Amino acid sequence: MKEIIKIFEKHKGYARMKELRNLKIHPREISKAVSDGIIEKIKPGLYKLINYPWDEHGSFADVCNSHKKAVICLATAADYFELTTFNPPYISAAVPHNTPNFKLDYPPLQVYYFPDKYYKVGIDKIETKSGTIRIYNKEKTIGDLFRYINKIGEDVAVESLKTYLKNRKERNISKLIEYSELCGVKKKVEPMIKAILS
Fold it and tell me: Where in the sequence is the domain holding 144, given as residue range(s)?
């Protein structure tokens, strides 16, 4: 088991079945490590070390590690940036619209299939103790919340916009309008910006 733990530690707490097999770890040993509570299966072929110094963003890293194109989005991104008091019951992640079905055993996940023009823009990469997470920036997140307002709810979108605008030091109104336009919601967002700031 020590050998398995070393492999996971070397890979920031994650390992794929393929890598383990290449390192001559027998599937029986992997199954035993799972049943002993040493490692946990995230999805078929991907495991994580349970006793690893994960930070509070460990579940975001799980999602981004399980799919190289997954980007944390919508209410989850708004919660990460402290734009909303809403605490999502699952992680929202975007992948390109033509991606094959993407599911995880854990954490709870809601997948959104974004067309390329919405998927490609505004992605930030953030280094955490749990690994690199891909997440849409604040301005793109607000644009997406308004784009999905009927599904996510007006309260989350409006609260996120108000919170963003309150922070005079960090807000960037021209960038916010640019992303609102990219998300096709400029006509909705621009009058609200004026109303909130007036």
Answer: 68-197
- Number of structural domains (the chain) is 2
Q: Which residues contact 95 (CB under 8 A, 6 or more apart)?
A: 67, 69, 70, 71, 102, 111, 112, 113, 114, 119
pTM listed for this prediction: 0.76
Is the domain of 95 the same as that of 183? yes
Q: How do the pLDDT tens digits run along the chain, 198 residues long?
A: 888 988 888 887 888 898 898 998 988 899 999 999 999 888 788 888 888 766 667 789 889 888 889 999 999 999 999 999 998 889 999 999 999 888 877 788 999 999 999 999 999 999 887 778 999 999 999 999 999 999 999 999 999 999 999 999 999 999 999 999 999 999 999 999 999 998
Q: In 3D, which of 108, 106, 76 has the Cα closest to residue 94?
A: 76
Q: Is residue 176 part of a domain?
A: yes
Which of 40, 52, 19, 15 lies closest to 128 in space, CA to CA? 52
